[in-house]
Amino acid sequence: MRFSDPDRCGIVLGPDPGHVRLARDWARRNSRATRRQADDLVLAVSVLVTNALQHTRSGGPGGTTQVVLYRRPATYTLSVTDNGPRPGPAIPFPRVEAATNPLSPTGNGLRLLDALCAYWDWTGAAGEPLTVRAVLDRAATPVRFHVKPS
């Protein structure tokens, strides 16, 4: 994706789960920051692209996920747009669920995003593509998560 603003860049990914890694690598390269400074951005990209592939038509045959990064002096604004909900009776909207087991392989993505970001929201309508937007503080110390032994 090309933008006239040099502080905005984007990528369109396919439905392959391996594209999550491509998205992380792309975010790190385009962060214009040190590896450590970019860690929260890379993690946020990973969460949002993974969610799009797992929960929407973006993860199905021919699906796409659009990722846009807007770099400002103090913030990153990350937008991830999916292809809309998968067929079925329930149309999921992003929301932080009740606490789950922190070691569970699923169910903690938006909780993690919430901890990483200064702000996040979403736009879209039932049955249509959805865009999740996250604003990250570029000056913040990267979030570190530690699991305490029981």
UniProtKB/TrEMBL annotation:
Superkingdom, taxonomy of origin: Bacteria
GO MF annotation terms: protein serine/threonine kinase activity
UniProt keyword Transferase, yes or no: yes
CDD domains from the UniProt entry: HATPase_RsbW-like (cd16936)
Residue ranges of every copy of the Histidine kinase/HSP90-like ATPase domain listed in the record: 16-122
Matching Gene3D superfamilies: Histidine kinase-like ATPase, C-terminal domain
Record flagged with keyword Ligase: no
Keywords (A to Z) from UniProt: Kinase, Serine/threonine-protein kinase, Transferase
Entry-linked InterPro entries: Anti-sigma-factor_SerPK, HATPase_C_sf, HATPase_dom
A Pfam family per the record: HATPase_c_2
Name of this protein: Serine/threonine protein kinase
